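Model it.
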Amino acid sequence: MNEFDGIMRPLQWAGRFTAALLLVGLVSCAQGNVKKNSVAGQFTNASGQGVEIELRKWTPGRSGEQGKFSAIAECTSDMTGKFEMDIKRPLPLDYYQLMIGRTIPMVIIMDSTMALHITAEVPEAGFLLDAKIKGSQPTEEVYEYYSQAMPIQTTLSMLRGMMQAAPDRESRQSLSDRSMKKKLEADDWAKEFLTNHPGSLAQLGPLEHLDPRANAMTFQMVLKSTAERLAGGAFHQALTGATSGMVPQKSDPRVINKGNGANKARAQKNSLYGIGDVAPDIVMNDPNGVERKLSDLKGKVVLLDFWASWCGPCRRENPNVVNAYQDYQSKGFEVFSVSLDKQTERWAQAIEQDGLIWPNHVSDLNGWQNAASRAYGVTSIPHAVLIDQNGVIAATHLRGASLRQKLDELLQ
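Modeled.
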């Protein structure tokens, strides 16, 4: 929720991000009577036997920085799939993420007065199947939403990735048309769920996947109706902050609400992906025809730099990037440069003249029609996207001293 990857993408909370964990209040998986302030149940297949289970809360970032998940309780299911997590801290009523085996997420809504019981099948990938939930009606309802919404979102993310790798304009257009249809399907389900569950605490879930500008009135009504019970929770606060001051207007396809809802509404310029979103992969050739992948750099902090040899501001900014690379490369920093050039010779000459010594330079030589720049919604250059070690966008529009300041934060 992924693609908080939101609450569902590891509200994701999927597919924005693997968040760093702060393991707090670890507990054992004792069997016995279900207590209040606990999550218990049984996973009914082999994939749910002897697996780690974490209860996570979301903490929004400050001043536009990326938020993160923190684990607040943990246990392991036994070899029959049974588990019981006794939570050692008071829980305010809020959205939480249950992470099974570090890969399978589930959204739950609970507080310390509840004893949540879950019976489900654990798939090898994706989302819990055929879950039966007791002890929290809001969790039952939010599971109903996400169990249908997340497969749609997964397909949507796959289509966007395929668009990026498409070999020609015709293929990209076909995939774009399919993507638009899938987005409409996602929006229709979100709106149908909101209509069928008036007053439900689970109504915050669909807001994760709706455009806040095109649906400003819906956001206002849902946030108001849930404020009395959820206003103190991180998810409600993040959505409220992200939509503060919005008024209804026509839909802007370049403004996309992703991740955990904590991202601020973004303007059109270079705004398709922002802080908290998972950075889509880029696969292109370097000047020598060697294929290079952005995903190969996962585990390092990466500056994704859109530029061109003919771009004066880009060339003036290059010395700052070179200096940052020289100072931080040994600490785990890399640069992945995407050129909007059309001629290999000019592109390669600019790399040499500006001393761009990192190995990852790519282009498809299509100028402004560059597939990566289109996938990222880049409409002007230079444009920089800073990606953390987990492949999640940590900052954008960085130049000069602001880049070095952010690198100090991520590489300390």
